[in-house]
Amino acid sequence: MLASRRRPGTVLVLKENKPLELRIHRRHRAVLYASDPAFLDAVLADERGWRLLLLEPMTMPVFRHESLMEFSRESFTFIARGKRWKAP
Which of 50, 54, 67, 86 is the right S-S partner for 23, CB 3.0 to 4.6 Å? Predict the structure, then answer.
């Protein structure tokens, strides 16, 4: 998850090609995430109202504090750069 100082009410989540499960709750105005759905299942076993957010790999949901349920989904490209090695 990322937050910006320029837009403090906005949170970005990067869903790469690794497991990541997100769930959202309208009344609680909250988003939870975990690398394994079993973690959320255990914590939320007695809770109702949590909805699974289905996200494709390489997707970036953008949540805004004032309208959490109306999040946008942006695609992104991850470009890995190798470390630059300098001679001692």
Answer: 50
Kind of pairing between the strands at 10-12 and 59-64:
antiparallel
In a domain, 86, yes or no: no
Rounded CA separation 55/80 (Å): 22
| Residue 83, in any domain of the structure | no
In total, the chain counts a number of residues equal to 88
Q: How many domains does the chain have?
A: 1
What are the angstrom distances between the C-alpha of 65 and each of 16, 32, 35, 41, 44? 23, 14, 23, 25, 22
> Taking the mean position of all CA atoms in its chain, how far away is CA 69?
13
**Does a structural domain hold residue 84?**
no
81: exposed, middle or buried (Cβ count in 10 Å: 0-12, 13-18, 19+):
exposed
Residue 28 placed within a domain: yes
**pTM of the predicted structure, to 2 decimals:** 0.74
